Amino acid sequence: MSKLTEFNVEDMINTTPLKGAGGDTQEPKVEQLMNKLRRLQQGKRVLEEEIKEIKSVSDSLQKELATLQTEAYQLEGIHKEKEELSRKLQFQCDESDQDFSRQLEQNKKSEELLEQYRCQIQEFKLKHRKLRMKFENQLYQLIEQHKNLHSIFTPERLPDEIENAENIKSQLLSAEQLKLAQLHRINEELEDVRKQRQSAVETQEQ
């Protein structure tokens, strides 16, 4: 466009007639017309070059616009994928929070049940200790009585007393075995609770 400023378009188009000395209009000389024609042709070439340059810039801008539209479409697709991934991650996070809350509640219940079993075990141990002491005292009394059988009972009643003592001993042993079985069952239940709690903790850590 800078080259075009050197030319006056109106001067190139208009051919002003020349005036003579007496004020009469004269036809332009051939040389002047040739100069104007050359200037017109030069201006045409400049305009054509300007048009080519503008077309080239326009084509470049069109290509750049198409590239930007393609990138914008790709970015839009990526943005949608990111949003979908974000929704999935948020859903998984919410589920994990719910699972963690349920696990905490389950652990709390397991702790309460475990504490309850501990109390029951302590109670059974105490009862078993008392029964054992009672059994030992009764057994000791029986032994003392047997030592004095000859002085207390007649020989005819001795077999009956021995049988009664054996019956009492058998009853005490049965009671002790029952309590031991109950204590064993509670220990097994406590071990099951511990295994469940350990499995829940391992699942939570994973």
Shape: rod-shaped
- In terms of per-residue confidence, which ranges show pLDDT below 50 for 5 or more consecutive residues? 1-26
Radius of gyration: 58 Å
CATH-scheme architecture: Orthogonal Bundle
Tell me the count of domains: 1
Total DSSP helices: 4
> How many β-strands, per DSSP?
2
Q: Termini, distance in Å?
A: 73 Å
By CATH, the topology is Helix Hairpins
Strand order of the biggest β-sheet: 1-2
* Percent in helix: over 70%
GO biological process, one term: synaptonemal complex assembly
Coiled coil: 30-71, 107-134, 173-203
Family: Belongs to the SYCE family.
Protein name: Synaptonemal complex central element protein 1 isoform X3
Architecture overview:
It is a single chain. With 206 residues, the chain is an all-alpha fold. It has one domain (4-205): Orthogonal Bundle (Helix Hairpins), CATH 1.10.287. Helix content is 85%, strand content 2%. It has helices at residues 9-13, 30-147, 149-152, 158-205; strands spanning 18-19, 25-26. The protein has a two-stranded antiparallel ribbon. A hairpin with a 5-residue loop joins strand 1 and strand 2. Helix 2 packs antiparallel against helix 4 (158-205). The two termini are 73 Å apart. Mean pLDDT is 79; it is low at 1-26.
Looking at this protein, list some descriptive labels.
mainly alpha; Helix Hairpins; two-stranded antiparallel sheet; 4 helices; 2 strands; 2% strand; coiled coil; Synaptonemal complex central element protein 1 isoform X3; meiosis; SYCE1
Helices, strands, pairings?
Blueprint: H1 9-13, E1 18-19, E2 25-26, H2 30-147, H3 149-152, H4 158-205
Antiparallel strand pairs: 1-2
Helix pairs in contact: 2-4
